[in-house]
Amino acid sequence: MYTIYVVFNCFEGKREAFVEAVKKEGILDAVRAEDGCRRYDYYYSESDPCELLLIEEWETKRHQEIHIGQPHMARLREIKGEYIISTTLGEFEVK
């Protein structure tokens, strides 16, 4: 199992709108349908209204690497600029 987390620092008032845009564009469903995707979920911080956490769980690191090159991920990168100030990425690998 390969798990990564992404912490998004969103523009003020844009956190929920970002998640809604990801859903509306069909990106969330497309990612979850990818081969090897076990979990792809967003979580809202209770203490910081601009912070959003994404947990991705993949069968292998290779599945996640293939995921990054998908067309829907290119679309996600395009729309991110409207909602996201910065991102922090971390990973876990369970063998």
Question: How would you characterize this protein structure?
Answer:
The chain has 95 residues and is α+β, with helices and mostly antiparallel strands. 39% of the residues lie in helices and 37% in strands. It has a 4-stranded antiparallel β-sheet. Helix 1 runs antiparallel to helix 4. The longest helix is centred in the last third of the chain and has 13 residues. The N and C termini lie close together (6 Å). The model has no long low-confidence stretch (mean pLDDT 95).
Order of helices and strands: EHHEEHHE
Distance between the terminal alpha carbons, to the nearest Å? 6 Å
Identify the overall geometry.
Answer: globular
Bin the strand percentage: 35-45%
Structural class: alpha+beta
SS element count, helices: 4
Number of strands: 4
Mean pLDDT, as a whole number?
95
Helical content class? 25-40%
Strand order of the largest sheet: 2-3-1-4
Rg over CA atoms, rounded to whole Å, is 13 Å
List the quaternary state of the chains: single chain
Q: Residue ranges: pLDDT <50 for 5 or more in a row?
A: none
Characterize the largest beta sheet: strand count, sense, and whether it forms a barrel.
4 strands, antiparallel
